[in-house]
Amino acid sequence: MHILRMLSALFKVNMELALAYRVDTAVNILLELLTLGWELISLGIIFSNTTTLGGWSLGELIALLGVFHLVNALMNVLIWPNTEKFNASVRDGTLDYTLLQPADSMFLVTFSRMVIWRVWDLILGAVLITIGVNMSGLGATPLNLLGFLLLATSGSLILYSLWIVMIAATFWFTKFDNNVTILQALLDTGRYPSTVYPFWLRLIITYFVPIAVATTVPLQALRGELGPLQILLFLGISAASFLAASRVWKAGVKKYAGASS
Amino acid sequence: MLRIYWRFWQVNWAEQWQYRANLLMYLFYWLVSPIVYLSVWVSIANVQGSVSGLTANDFITYYLTLLVVDQLTSEITIHIFAYKIQDGTLSGDLLRPVHPILTNALVNNIAFKALNLIVFIPIWIALFLLFRPDYSSVTLITILIAVPGILIGFCLNFLLGAMITCMAFWTTRVYSVSQFFYLLIVLLSGQFVPLQLLPPVVQQIAQYLPFQMFRFVPVEIIRNRLSTAEILFDYAISLVWLVIFYLLFRWVWREGVKRFSAVGA
Which of A15, A216, A246, B130 is most enclosed, with most CB atoms within 10 A? Predict the structure, then answer.
């Protein structure tokens, strides 16, 4: 209950922030629409030259684009804006005030900035997934759908845990401004099924910066390619990585000595 | 004048050298999308044997060459200059008897590029070993013929970037303008896909636009894929655009600075 109250307070503050820059928001939404147009055109160009990509049909690629937008929503609503705020607060020392507040510091660092209008990525993602699944004629059973939803959530949780570890690294290496660049750079690989990539790149985006786990893997569940054991394994990994990340965060906060010292 | 450029070079090189640690990250960021497109098209070509006559090796050589050309023709003016217009530090630059964009910003671009190349070469060699392209169609002559194209491509890209940056005189949302052009350029410069795979109508249009000189034309010249007539045609079109861009830039700059002083007064 307490957490929900805090969330709604932070939501209100950020909503007011967004409303103060109305024209910016409108321009940004327009740009997003253009980007969406670009994404669909690029898929159109690819599929005017082929009928399958890495064994996947156009409909499945559109559904994958939808999942990519879900992950993108997490990144754009929370991860990137809070990274910026966090890095700045380590540099100028205002992180002290965050740590002094009587609430979980990991929670505050995650939710203090929210770019609200980006929530539309969630809606767009859902629409694209629905259209894509219908187009591909995947007779998705309720069980596959459940697996898909669970894996999409757990994949995002894994990426979130990775992010926590990345920004917590700043506590040990203070001059680490590029802490999330690798994640940012590799994110775009999520637009296409990981099976199209060469072995070494697939290795990176599956095990080291597991973007494929949040994009390709849920869709594989939807296609009915994953057994219940595999799904359980992924859920276990995501829970473990979240626990590990919060441990790293706590250790980092303990190590942190403020900007002045 | 040459001595002025030399001074600017020394200052900007030293300045860029400070940020060398960020370079690796920047390069990494910039590498990913061509590699993604390469993988997508290679995977299609491997299944079908070829895509509209392009084999897997064609795509590999295309994108690996594109990485080099893109590195040479890219520009970062908006990142080193837009803030000066927004926070007013441009006033100091305007007092100098040289054009701030055509001297300082230009040299800064080149210093950034030179430093990038040092880090980029070993990365490119690594990619070469990973993808093992067959470069037998490339000769020293084809590379030499592409050099003017790369130069023109950089000048066009730089002037376009400078004009977009100058939009900061009118609007605070200059990065949105730049984003819009970015989408257009990815498609029409051949970054997403070799232009011959675009729908015929778009190909026809792209032929008369300046963007193909940023990447597609130099890459295809190096790969020995264009006839002499095509090369001459593309060079002629791009020179016309160069004149247009230069004149347009002069005009945008003049009007912008007028507005700038009006705000400052």
Answer: A216
- CB neighbours of B143 closer than 8 A, spacing ≥ 6? B222
Cα distance between residue B162 and residue B165, in whole Å: 5
Closest alpha carbon to A98 in A249, A245, A239, A242? A249
C-alpha A38/C-alpha A3 separation (Å) is: 39
Structure tokens at B13: 């090189």
Other residues' Cβ atoms within 10 Å of the Cβ of residue B232 = 11
pLDDT at A131: 93
Which of A27, A117, A199 should one mutate to test binding to chain B, selecting the residue with the greatest count of B CBs within 10 A? Answer: A27
Q: CB-based contacts of B223: which residues, under 8 Å, 6+ apart? A: B58, B61, B62, B65, B137, B138, B142
Q: What residues of A are in contact with residue B49 (Cβ under 8 Å)?
A: none
Low-confidence residues in chain A, pLDDT < 50: 261
Q: Which residues, numbered 19 to 58 in chain A, qualify as contacts with chain B under a Cβ-Cβ cut-off of 8 Å? A: 23-24, 27-28, 31, 34-35, 38, 41-42, 45-46, 48-50, 52-54
Residue A213: per-residue pLDDT: 93
Q: Report which of residues B239 and A224 the model is more confident about.
A: B239
Nearest CA to B211 out of B231, B230, B184 is that of: B184
Q: Count chain A–chain B contacts defined by CB atoms under 8 A.
A: 76
Q: Are A212 and A187 in contact (CB under 8 A)?
A: no
Q: Are A63 and A128 in contact (CB under 8 A)?
A: yes
Is residue B49 within 8 A of residue B194, CB to CB? The reply is no
Radius of gyration, CA atoms only, chain B: 20
Q: Please indicate whether, in this complex, the C-beta atoms of B28 and A185 are within 8 angstroms of each other.
A: yes
ipTM summary value = 0.88
In 3D space, the residue among B148, B177, B183, B179 whose CA is nearest the CA of residue B164 turns out to be B177
Distances in Å between the Cα of B5 and the Cα atoms of A163, A246, B104, B151, B153 are 43, 53, 8, 18, 21
Q: Which residues 6+ apart lie within 8 Å of A138 measured at CB?
A: A59, A60, A222, A223, A224
